[in-house]
Amino acid sequence: MKPSPDPQTFGESTLLGSVSSGYEEPVRRGGARGSMFDACQVGVVLRAVLFVEAVAAVAAMFVADHFTGWLLRFALLTGGVLPATLAWLIAACALKDRLGRLRLPLQWLAGALLGTAAGLYGCGALALMGVLNPAPWWASAAAGTLLSAMLLAGLYWRAKARTPAATAARLAELQSRIRPHFLFNTLNSAIALVRAEPAKAEAVLEDLSELFRHALADPAESVTLGQEIALAQRYLAIEQVRFGERLQVQWSLDAEADQAKLPPLLLQPLVENAVKHGVEPSATGAQLRISTLKRGGTVVIKVTNSTPAGVGERGHGLALANVRERLALLHDVEAKFRTVFKDGMFQVRMEIPA
Q: What integer best gives the mean pLDDT of the chain?
């Protein structure tokens, strides 16, 4: 794995193909499987609160003559706006499965009505504290409805980003999943083992069959880290037959991290790329280390490999950017992704919620 691998040898020609699209949730009734109301993630909550608070700050400017007056007005509005926003987010998160089963127009209507209720709730909270007299019920209901519609628009486009652009894109992605020379090399290895070590040849074909089964399975939003590890182990078992002692693999796995969620087929292309750019160009082979570790509420995943000096050309790193984008789609701001190249070692480090 080089610091910036060629996208043609990583994203488009890997065994299981492009990591940028094709495994996101399919569209259902005009939306992404109810995720229009997916307000349960920390990133969504933070953006929603900041957006509504920004609107409240601007609104306070219209009735304030000086900075102190604006600050007092903004604090007053926050006392109603913040509880109302959090109430809307909690309701959207709790009801996302039920609301997601509605037709798209009804989803918009339900979200707007939630906003109306949240606006009235915020107004009522300020009225009970005696800071609003008279209470602007109609204005609060209208503001809640409008802000809710704007939040829904953001969530809708976020949900759209999880889906393939078109059926043609999905078919093209399916066709790019199988790297021909990997298939031929694997079959040749199995043929060579049939007479001398038939049990080993059978194991190779079983691993290959399992890889293809996962490649052609129906898409899902996420799988467990344990499943991704098992798939990567099958891939490396096949490559071990091909490279022998040139492929030196070290696993350091934390069983407590196995239930963490990842986009499907995210780890295997990273491991394959490590073999492609670390082992294949080197006559003496390379070291490959895959580690997982649970730290509190975070799981750290590392894929590290040595690289032969002066081999290959520097690419654009598009495939690594695609991996980063897929992690962000699933975990938003809770996911971290970075690469480090130092002293002949290249490392991909990912952090995801446990």
A: 78
